Amino acid sequence: MSVAGQPILDPVLAPPFPKAALTVLRDVQLRKNVAHATDVIQAKRARLVAEKPDWQALRASASQIRDEALDNLGSYLEQFEAQCTARGGAVHWAADAAEARAIILGILKEENASEVIKIKTMTSAEIQLNPYLQAAGVKVFETDLAEIILQLGELEPSHIVVPALHVNRSQVREIFARTMGLSDLSDDPQALTAAARHYLRRKFLEIPTAIGGANFLIAETGAVAVVESEGNGRMCLTLPRTLITLAGIEKILPRYNDLEVMLQVLARSATGERMNPYTSLWTGVTPGDGPERFHVLLLDNGRSAIRARERERQTLRCIRCGACLNACPVYRQTGGHAYGSVYPGPIGAILTPQLTGMKHAQSLPYASSLCGVCYEVCPVKINIPEILIDLRAQVTDQERKKAARLFDPMYLGMRVANLLFSRAWLFHWAQWMSRIGSKVFTRKDGWIHSLPGMGGEWTQTRDLRGLPKQTFHAWWKQRKQASR
Amino acid sequence: MVEAEKAGLAMSPKSAARAAILGKLGTECRAADGASRPEPIVRDYIRRGSLDADACVAKMIERLREYDAEVTECSPEGLALEIANQIVRSGRKTFVAPAGVPREWLTPGFDWRIDGDLAGPLAIGEIEDCDGVLTACFCAVADSGTIVLHHSPAEGRRVISLLPDWHLCILRASQIVETLPEYFDRCAKPPALVTWISGPSATADIEMTRIKGVHGPRFLNVVVVKDGKTENQE
């Protein structure tokens, strides 16, 4: 789905959500795949959350731990840097995507690396690392099964945990058969998984440079944790000579022991498992075990600006479990691509516009019915609906200052409404006028079935109750007079 | 964009970006353990489990089996025999074991390659050629069926429990705790290397169908040794 090598998941270039969603909503196969996958994860998650009597206590602690990390982020990052460096790691800092890409390429050049193996990391998708490295002549091999499907099929991720959930088995079979030259491959997931295992085995053993992300950075010890299922992470973390970890600055946890909370909520929320098959934690370089050279790249790319805003700071608590995506009635219909960002769903709707400094993706805060289920399932209690409303207000504030909005019917209407609502006599007059005006459109049953012009956009899909003969005010006055 | 990236590199982006980021975040006064917060972090979640030792072991075994791991039990005296049983039944021939495991665990008559003895570490290729691996572990968490490796000499380097397709893990009953926080209570100090293993390698990336065995070992066998003791601290 990339056009001439240009990723569609670039918030700067993506069309507004309602427009992008229309295309997706016509794709019956994709909607079926997304509905199936989100149904399965939701059901598993619900069952495992129900068996935890202390779930709400875990959520409360998890959100407080994340808040503590964010409140003291600068000093915890310094502590992480000091600890990691003391254990033989090299810590780099990048203010934005361009710096991060340049630093990574710099390290790869030092290593004379023409190939890298990669663990799934959304942060690398955020900075569009793969196309950049490929253009610089570095061959990139994704190793997570879903990422292989996307890379070989030249598709874009649509979910932060299960990025290929919009692709079904026969589509995977077609991609693998074509790109791996396996014409007699069956569409049995077991066979497809075996094909991926075979495809990657030699790459794990032979490519000496790996790039991965981090689920958590432990300030106390300088350790990094990666949570995964397949073992491709463990391969990339132990076999290569050089490991580069790209992590957003918000991934900090204050203490090692904080994992006792985070590991309990993460897998249950993400995949509906009591625990994911593998979690790895390492600290700098351990002689004789794993990579000889270890680099951590701490990426800001808009995060410090989000942290600076009091109400929106909680956005950064996110541990990327994807529970809000699976639960969201909007995401479940559209899937991820309509959001035009590597971070789709409710968390994407608040994270993406903020990461661009509220310059792009401004339709995303509206891609929600504000039903609140995202807040309910969030293991770190991010009040997504509250932030959505706040961002909507910011979008409107920015928009109404634009000259182009002076004669925009919606903004014009809002200004008129503002005037009418602020003066009682004007309001009563407007009510009287509307009653007369709407009489023509009101049918005998008391409903308005169709309106002309802009009003038609409302009545196209629903009826409108006709205005009553008497306003509440008038009725109240009359009642008081009658009782006297 | 390319010029900007070159320019960024020339002026040492590390120091510049570091100063810029920390400048925005601020690094002033952080006292120990979240003292900057008006209230300390509330930890009302379950710390200690409520099961007795036998029930805890039973839960661990149940959870492991749910992950499709094969579990057997034995007495401390019967361990060597049970390991031999597992080794023979696996139908495999070449095994890797870390230098720290007791010699009597190494069933005679099979090709054992020892990692980290006097001959030093095995080459990756030698480990890859092995059919199976035998290790001890640090701890296990019954609540989630998780085995924890701290990669001590008896647990081995990370790579040996990764490449072979069959992992036989020896777990003493006294190493089993019920809840995850109880594991953290057993860590005298934070370890440098940890691997938490919950069942064999798996994926659900294709239509959410759980498939066993992607890149890590496809088979996890666990021998629970009923040693009848409980440990509280390491």
Short recap of the structure:
The complex is a heterodimer of chains A (484) and B (234). Chain A is α/β, with parallel strands linked by helices and 484 residues long. Chain A is built from 22 helices and 12 strands.
Give structural notes:
Chain A is of the alpha/beta class. Chain A is 49% helix and 11% strand. Chain A has helices at 17-25, 28-50, 55-71, 73-86, 97-110, 122-126, 129-135, 145-153, 169-180, 189-206, 232-238, 259-270, 303-307, 323-327, 331-334, 345-355, 373-377, 384-400, 409-421, 424-439, 456-459, 472-483, and strands at 89-94, 115-118, 139-142, 209-212, 216-218, 223-228, 242-248, 252-253, 278-283, 293-299, 447-448, 464-465. The radius of gyration of chain A is 26 Å and the shape is elongated. The model of chain A is unreliable at 1-6 (pLDDT under 50). With 234 residues, chain B is α/β, with parallel strands linked by helices. In chain B, 26% of the residues lie in helices and 21% in strands. Chain B is built from 6 helices and 12 strands. In chain B, the strands form 3 sheets. Chain B has a 6-stranded parallel β-sheet, sandwiched between helices. A 4-stranded mixed β-sheet of chain B has the order 8-5-6-9. In chain B, strands 10-11 form a two-stranded antiparallel sheet. Chain B is globular and about 65 Å long. At the A-B interface, helix 2, helix 3, helix 4, strand 1 and helix 5 of A face helix 1, helix 2, helix 5, helix 6 and strand 9 of B.
